[in-house]
Design goal:
Helix content is about 30%, strand content about 20%. The chain has helices at about 5-10, 55-60, 110-120, 140-145, 175-180, 190-195, 260-270, 285-290, 315-325, 325-335, 360, 370-380, 395-410, 420-430, 450, 480-490, 495-510, 550-575, and strands at about 30-35, 65-70, 75, 80-85, 90-100, 155-160, 165, 215-220, 225-230, 250-255, 275, 295-305, 340, 385-395, 415-420, 435-440, 465, 470, 515-525, 535, 540-545. Helix 9 (about 315-325) runs antiparallel to helix 12 and helix 16 (about 480-490) packs antiparallel against helix 17 (about 495-510).
């Protein structure tokens, strides 16, 4: 393995002596060792939305037209500004976004056409994504998704390189759309990469491109490296000299996945690690554990039930399967970051105003304790002899066993089917499951992204164009009353109107129980005393763009030296072999 020195050198390491000019062009900022949960195998922001941790990476590597802060405020992202042209008389409603002068990680200019391509791809009948409905305010979007119109009919265009023109179906509160386009699922993509390397571009560094503050320089099983993007908001005009630390402070974020949990905690104490996602507390670290901070992730550990399955098509059975579960115990079994679900829409989702809570307004729709007697009453006299399969990622073996144990109290026959990550994703894509355990990731800070996909016309599922058939949600849930509420949400033009109906939708979804929410996820973390200026996104993920540590030039040199020693040691081992 000869990757280490190359990785150290290519990331523009800091020079220890200071130049006499206003800034040192060789000072690229701090190398910050961190630990982000677990390695992600696929970093395509528009495709992977059933994993609670994927946004921890994609919010660092990609950026949308706007960004949402921790308080819900919407600010400029890759769009420098926007203007509206709403003409009631002509029935024309346009928003024009002017893009910043920024570039992809390979140095090519980021163009408005890259948003056009990404959004048309998302709305293609051949693509399945819950994110499709986020774009349904755009003219003809729903008809494009249903196959009634071609993607060229979509009301989005690029009049010039840096202008994205969006035509809406109707006049809406502009803040609704600005909040939506901050979604990591709606970031730009490059046709020349995604089309040529459709299955692999987001799974290795070979063809991976980013447009956010960081680029991906290493993506191994045992380590990830995110480098300051040299092209993020930096002018490539040779006549313009900008401080390389203006827009992104760190030179590198380094994640080592070979270390044990105990070693990570020790490294944090010794200030060799500066950010630690907490998954468990090692023995002897109880005092430090009191300093753990928690932010709500927009993610709910959820069971998808195949509503077309003979047994699971029975609403009483689905409700009984939920009632028999003790969510307090289940959340404890899931470990750090899991709190009992009291609804489907997780904590952290905003209500009618920034900072308000949809969950608090909606109240508790699910009990966190089990009601075994009520559950048994619902299935009394029913034929429960049909075996049902519970599929899940292999690491949730023990947790799945708890679900099986609870359901067998009702007389259900449950078979546990663990799967590798690859097999699991294939099952999800093919919709070949009875019950599937997953993390449902909210794609925006609004409950809209949670609830609308369960309405048939907004599911974003594959479309059989030849048969002119709109597929329901992948659970098979298709409820006329729920669909009608979704249409009312789509017709609403203000956030207040939409939120009121979304509360009705969540209540109905819980009552019908095509899914079973189990726990809300939190981002649990510790930071070293040296890490400064760390902020968080509206999705609860860490934003390291302005992060720094003290005396980093000296620490950078020590980090590089350690890496070079490891490289030399490995070369000796290879030579000996």
């Amino acid at each position: 393995m000869k990757r280490f020195v190359a990785l150290c050198l290519c990331a523009a390491m800091a020079v220890l002596s200071l130049a006499s000019c206003a800034f040192d062009p060789d000072d690229r900022g701090a190398i910050i060792p961190i630990y982000l949960t677990e390695a992600e195998a696929n970093l395509d922001p528009s495709a992977v939305i059933y994993d609670k941790d994927v946004f921890k990476y994609t919010t660092l590597l990609f950026e949308g037209l706007t960004v949402v802060g921790e308080d819900g405020s919407v600010k400029a992202g890759l769009a420098e500004k926007w203007t509206t042209d709403f003409n009631e008389e002509r029935g024309e409603y346009f928003i024009e976004f002017t893009l910043r002068d920024t570039h992809w990680s390979d140095g090519r200019a980021l163009l408005a056409d890259h948003f056009v391509y990404a959004w048309k791809r998302l709305l293609s009948p051949a693509v399945a994504s819950d994110a499709a409905c986020l774009l349904f305010d755009i003219k003809n979007a729903s008809k494009v998704k249903s196959g009634e119109m071609t993607v060229d009919s979509l009301g989005v265009s690029a009049p010039n390189r840096f202008t994205l023109r969006v035509e809406l179906e109707k006049k809406i509160d502009i803040d609704l759309f600005l909040e939506t386009v901050a979604s990591p699922a709606l970031v730009p993509l490059r046709y020349d990469v995604v089309s040529d390397f459709a299955d692999t571009w987001a799974t290795s560094t070979e063809n991976f491109l980013s447009c956010g503050p960081f680029s991906l320089s290493a993506m191994f099983e045992d380590e990830y490296m995110l480098d300051k993007s040299s092209n993020y908001l930096i002018s490539l005009d040779p006549k313009v000299q900008e401080n390389p630390n203006t827009y992104v402070k760190p030179a590198k974020l380094y994640i080592d996945y070979t270390t044990s949990n105990t070693n990570n905690w020790n490294a944090l104490v010794n200030k060799e690690l500066h950010y630690l996602d907490v998954t468990s507390v090692p023995k002897g670290a109880e005092e430090l554990a009191k300093k753990i901070k928690r932010d709500d992730l927009l993610s709910t550990a959820t069971l998808f039930l195949n509503n077309e399955n003979t047994l699971l098509a029975d609403r009483d059975v689905r409700r009984a399967m939920s009632l028999v579960l003790d969510r307090n115990s289940l959340a404890s079994a899931l470990g750090f970051g899991a709190v009992p679900a009291t609804g489907f829409v997780s904590n952290g989702v905003f209500d009618k105003s920034n900072g308000s809570s949809f969950r608090k307004t909606g109240g508790d729709l699910i009990s966190t304790t089990a009601d075994v007697n009520a559950a048994k009453e619902l299935v009394k006299g029913k034929d429960l002899s049909v075996e049902i399969k519970l599929q899940y990622r292999a690491q949730y073996e023990d947790f799945a066993a708890l679900l099986k144990e609870a359901w067998e109290i009702l007389g259900l026959k449950v078979r546990l089917v663990p799967a590798s990550d690859k097999v699991y994703k294939n099952v999800l894509k093919a919709q070949e499951f009875d019950i599937l355990l997953l993390d449902f990731q909210g794609l925006t800070t609004s409950a809209y992204s949670y609830l609308m996909p369960f309405a048939t016309a907004y599911s974003g599922n594959y479309i059989d164009v030849d048969g002119a058939f709109t597929n329901p949600h992948m659970t098979g849930f298709d409820n006329a009353a729920y669909n009608e509420l979704a249409d009312r949400v789509h017709a609403a033009t203000t956030k207040s109107e939409r939120v009121a109906i979304l509360h009705e939708m969540e209540s109905m979804l819980i009552d019908e129980m095509p899914i079973i929410p189990l726990a809300f996820w939190q981002n649990c973390y510790l930071v070293s005393g040296e890490l400064k200026n760390l902020t968080f996104t509206g999705f609860g993920t860490a934003n390291f763009k302005d992060a720094t540590i003290g005396d980093y030039l000296k620490k950078n040199a020590a980090w590089i030296e350690k890496r070079e020693e490891l490289e030399a040691s490995q070369e000796e081992e290879e030579t000996a072999e």
